[in-house]
Amino acid sequence: MISLFFCALAFTLAGAVLPDGRMHGNLLRTASVPKARLDNLNGPVVSRNGTILPPYNTTYEFDQLIDHNNPSLGTFKQRFWHTWEFYEPGGPIILSTPGESNAEGYDGYLTNVTINGQIAQQESGSTIVLEHRFYGLSNPRPDLTVQSLQLHTIQQAIDDLVYFAENVNLPMPGGNKVTPDLAPWILVGGSYSGALTSWTMV
Fold it and tell me: How far apart are the C-alpha atoms of 117 and 105, rounded to whole Å?
């Protein structure tokens, strides 16, 4: 009877994991961009000139190419979050992606509690968080088959950033007049998204 108890206990412990998903504390945590926490994401945002703007957690969608090497395959809905709280005409557009995670909850990167928002505040810019393809709800394909995952490459992710910048009509006054040929864009990232930043050129 005692040996049966110890067998059950061993099986239970073998399947146990830490709250962050690691098997034990000697394993390194997976590197990722930390979320910036805000107390009031649902409330209205007030711009510098007193205009009431949508809440930070308002989700927008962009028609992104499924395959940048074959545009005839069509588009998918790529989610993004955006605010123009500090924007004044001529200011930069600050774009970031959390990289390999669901972008929902990263709306703190729109605000001045992060470097993105501090740049926007100082330079009278607008901030955007763009969800990476195949994460969250921004999926070019409805499955994770080998065929679908052939579209999950670094080059496709870089091309997503460029295509977004060159084609988005941002939901703000003059949002169709802020493409990289008309306004400065600043791409910000850390960890994998920092690597994407260094590899991207518009």
Answer: 15
